# Entry
Amino acid sequence: MRANDPLLQPYTIKHLTLRNRIMSTAHEPNYHEDGMPKDRYRLYHVEKAKGGIALTMTAGSAVVSRDSPPAFGNLLAYKDEIVPWLRKLADECHEHGAAVMIQLTHLGRRTNWNKGDWLPILSPSPVREPAHRAFPKEMEDWDFDRIIADYAAAAQRMKAAGLDGFEFECYGHLMDAFWSPATNLRTDDYNGSIDNRLRFTMRVLEAVRKAVGPDFIVGCRLVADEDWDKGLSKQEGLEICHKLKNSGLVDFLNIIRGHIEHDAPLARVIPVMGMQASPHLNFAGEVRALTRFPVFHAARINDVATARHAVAEGKLDMVGMTRAHIADPHIVKKIAEGRESEIRPCVGATYCLDRLYEGYDTLCIHNPATGREASLPQVVTRTTGKRRKIAIIGAGPAGLEAARVSGERGHEVILFEASGNPGGQIRLASQARRRRELIGIADWRAEQCERLGVSVKYNHFVEAADVRSLDADIVIVATGGLPQNMAIEEGADLAVSSWDILSGDVKPAEDVLVFDDNGAHPGMAAAELIAETGSTLEIASPERIFAAEIGGLNLVPYMQAFTRRNVRITTMTRVRTLKRQGNKILATLWNTYGEADYSTRLVDQVVIENGTSPLADLYFDLKEESSNRGELDHEAFVVARPQAIRTNPSGKFQLFRIGDAVASRNIHAAIYDALRLCRVF
Ligand SMILES: Cc1cc2nc3c(=O)[nH]c(=O)nc-3n(C[C@H](O)[C@H](O)[C@H](O)COP(=O)(O)O)c2cc1C
Ligand code: SF4
# Structure
């Protein structure tokens, strides 16, 4: 069966044979150092090569010109010093059998002048891109020759680095800004007919071909339908695909559908959890059928079955599983070894990309090893030391990960959970229908624990005496937290928590005020649930930015629900007091900048979200009996050295607490705590 698996069949493009049909499309992880793909960047891609991927498209839009300031940690392809770094990356990926290409671009208006060298940004016409908020200059005659030469020089560098090819980014950046009626308002011969709008692209391609020769692999990742009343139509997009093919200058098309000038349309191009899976696969297949040309494509094809279908049905030549590889870089290896069920699922949380757009490095919500390959292993190996007995209390994300990692290390692991199911706060969050895929984070770990022989005891509320009787070497308290209600000065007992709403324990009333003093998912998810039941809803936030902990893409579905349901959003406002008034609640609103009460609301229900306070009684009950008095050696923790603190030598076990049992944080933090701690036992 595996020998015939459509996904595992090789694919040849020009002289290059790719070992299977799975690729990772371009994505800037923001792992650069000084704009160069140094160790962190390289190790990230090498891990995918080790994991069996056929092709890794490096960079997300490595920039070819100085006046394309790096908007999100882009590699600087206009510098010669990039060549040796890319060569090292390519060589190491090649050693593991993967091909390496790179995405090149001039970002045009999709950046801002206040980065890099503070050069003015440019575009065919001075049309501002809402996402990056800069006003571009209209390209003038001398810009054309310069930028075309920059593309050719960057292309030459990529060839010199020993890459297998590159693609140009042609959606939302400079090249396609000429194609789209939304961004090209020129009156010269770079606008009008499709040939005119393609003039800049063709000039670049011709210059690039001269630079790298006819044999080098060159592709375009292009929008073939902007799906936008004022943008590029499908008919125009298909015409561009045909013209690119017929030019003989490109070797593959990597198909995009949609436009990306701000978060809402971007989320249709890169859908987040709860949105349609593989929404543009049929469209990409249509382009392939019509052009009879190599077609690559990625957009939420995050499970192997859909990827297999895409190739088996001839919709794609190469299927992009990009976030899926951020979640698990060893997908192909696991398919080939018949371990498909062990693939860590990409649940579409899009923590990865939302972090990037906020200027951080890309991290997966439930794979802390990704992007940290130098210090954390993707594969946890068995210990060569003593087999320990490890008791873990709490099967939320932290406890489950601690159990999985300790199981992989070969220890005797007992995992206790007070409720009847694994997941903790993840289970609660996944009650919201739109976010139910989150449960994959818990389910995957529960399945791994079963495979590893972890003894899991549900419906066990563990007390200190139970722990004592276990005779464990190591005790890990991962009991999470409970909603805290410190956010208001008076009348907190009149409010309910976001958890009450999410769990279904409390039904939304008719007229509701949500006070979100956290800015993260629990408050928003509760608010969405309330709004969708038809209640009248106002959300008050003390911050000047609404839902400050939620990234742009994740905010889209919330905002769409709030807009649809006429939810009133009030920022810079704190709910200060609550008082009973008849069968209603009177809320006093405080302006956080005016620093005074400024209004009141009379509502049926007030919901407060204020993070959690640690549920750590068990930890404190055990603290004095442990050999380390619960102390964590931070130095050892961050460099993955064994925990050696013995402040109480008569203690019978080492004690640690992780995740929200320490302080209210997020899923990634909880899992990262557990992996770092348990991989050294
Ligand atoms: C962190 C991150 C950065 C990205 N940066 C780029 C980019 O620079 N250029 C690009 O063409 N696509 C970029 N993408 C989009 C991906 O290439 C891909 O189209 C998208 O993630 C959808 O595919 P998937 O569902 O398989 O992840 C990025 C995606 C992620 C997650
Ligand atoms: S953060 Fe979410 S979307 Fe991104 S790779 Fe991880 S699971 Fe997938």
Summary: The pocket of iron/sulfur cluster (ligand 2) is lined by residues 323, 326-327, 346-352, 364-366 (CB under 6 Å). The chain is about 35% helix and 20% strand.
